[in-house]
Amino acid sequence: YIKFLSIVDLCSLLLSIPAGYAEQACTFSTYVAAFYHTHLGWNLVFMLRNISFFTIIWMSYDRLLAIWFNKKFMDVQKTRITISRLTVTCFWVMMSYVPIMYWGEVLNISDLLAPAARSRRDIWVGHPGYNFKPDTVLYRVYEVYFAIFLQILPAVVLLGLSVGLIIGLIKTHKPLEKKNLNAHMIKRKKRQYFSTVALLLINLTYVLCSVPYLILMIDHVTPPSECYGTAEKEIWIGSMNSLMVVWSAFNVTFFIFLNKDYMKEAKSVVTLGMRPNRESFRSNRSSTRTSRVSIDLSPESKAKRQSLSSNNSRRPSPTFPTSPDFAMGMKCKKESVTFAPTTKTLITCAYVDDATYIV
């Protein structure tokens, strides 16, 4: 998800700037400007923003599973499932925006102007797709579909997931030092807590920046034959465009400070794929975060450890944690290994950190 958002958010931010602050008028002096404003422009921005929005919903859903249903969370953390989710989401959102892009129309109105108002250059006018024959049944059906499935229903789902995350944080947030956890578990739980809070802040930012724009779309829709013409509406539209740019910029900035992997992917997008050596990065990460512990559970070894512990309090005998936090945060397997002439029991435990299994 982080790699995917690094591309979508950056593209949305870069496209928001020309779409928000370019020529916003009824008429255009070039066909290219009229075509971009009519068929692409905000359509591309909103399409990318919807894809980013649904990706954040998937992230919120997985974070909710991590808090409330840890076993189910570990089952869905697979590359195949992630790719399938993102592929279906992108295809559905893109196909939903095809009609509004196709219905847009660019016309040359130079011949329709009065002779005194004509100039040497052609005058073009763009009719965006969201103003396509609003009285037809096809447009009304599309309008209801677009409003429910791409705006209202996702917002309700995100609100429900956010409430579940807040309740989960309140329920599970206790002083970590009092939970009998080791240093690694405390650090991991603090990182998970911070990730959940950051995700809630992103959800809140979406609501604050998108709701005013939805109000603009509902109450201030301009008919195709009418120019804006009033300073009040121009200021309102400019403010809403700025909010959408702020939302994209906030996502990019927040993810950069939140996750080092996101920062690396963002740099890769900006530098056109010039990434550092991944093999060295993986080897360094594995060398610093990988550990394997073998515990001999035979009666003779247990008695020996207890005697060593009684003689030296600074060397306590190894214990196998059985707290609920340990069970939720780790997966362990037990196997018998033969070391002639004896057979020992080897316990291998894996810390589960989101989608990363560390053995």
From TrEMBL:
<keyword id="KW-0732">Signal</keyword>
<dbReference type="InterPro" id="IPR053093">
    <property type="entry name" value="GPCR-like"/>
</dbReference>
<keyword id="KW-1133">Transmembrane helix</keyword>
<dbReference type="Pfam" id="PF00001">
    <property type="entry name" value="7tm_1"/>
</dbReference>
<dbReference type="InterPro" id="IPR000276">
    <property type="entry name" value="GPCR_Rhodpsn"/>
</dbReference>
<feature type="signal peptide">
    <location>
        <begin position="1"/>
        <end position="22"/>
    </location>
</feature>
<keyword id="KW-0812">Transmembrane</keyword>
<feature type="compositionally biased region" description="Low complexity">
    <location>
        <begin position="309"/>
        <end position="324"/>
    </location>
</feature>
<feature type="transmembrane region" description="Helical">
    <location>
        <begin position="235"/>
        <end position="258"/>
    </location>
</feature>
<protein>
    <recommendedName>
        <fullName>G-protein coupled receptors family 1 profile domain-containing protein</fullName>
    </recommendedName>
</protein>
<feature type="transmembrane region" description="Helical">
    <location>
        <begin position="82"/>
        <end position="103"/>
    </location>
</feature>
<feature type="transmembrane region" description="Helical">
    <location>
        <begin position="40"/>
        <end position="61"/>
    </location>
</feature>
<feature type="compositionally biased region" description="Low complexity">
    <location>
        <begin position="283"/>
        <end position="294"/>
    </location>
</feature>
<feature type="transmembrane region" description="Helical">
    <location>
        <begin position="144"/>
        <end position="172"/>
    </location>
</feature>
<keyword id="KW-0472">Membrane</keyword>
<dbReference type="GO" id="GO:0004930">
    <property type="term" value="F:G protein-coupled receptor activity"/>
</dbReference>
<dbReference type="GO" id="GO:0016020">
    <property type="term" value="C:membrane"/>
</dbReference>
<feature type="transmembrane region" description="Helical">
    <location>
        <begin position="193"/>
        <end position="215"/>
    </location>
</feature>
<feature type="region of interest" description="Disordered">
    <location>
        <begin position="279"/>
        <end position="326"/>
    </location>
</feature>
<feature type="domain" description="G-protein coupled receptors family 1 profile">
    <location>
        <begin position="1"/>
        <end position="255"/>
    </location>
</feature>
<comment type="similarity">
    <text>Belongs to the G-protein coupled receptor 1 family.</text>
</comment>
<dbReference type="InterPro" id="IPR017452">
    <property type="entry name" value="GPCR_Rhodpsn_7TM"/>
</dbReference>
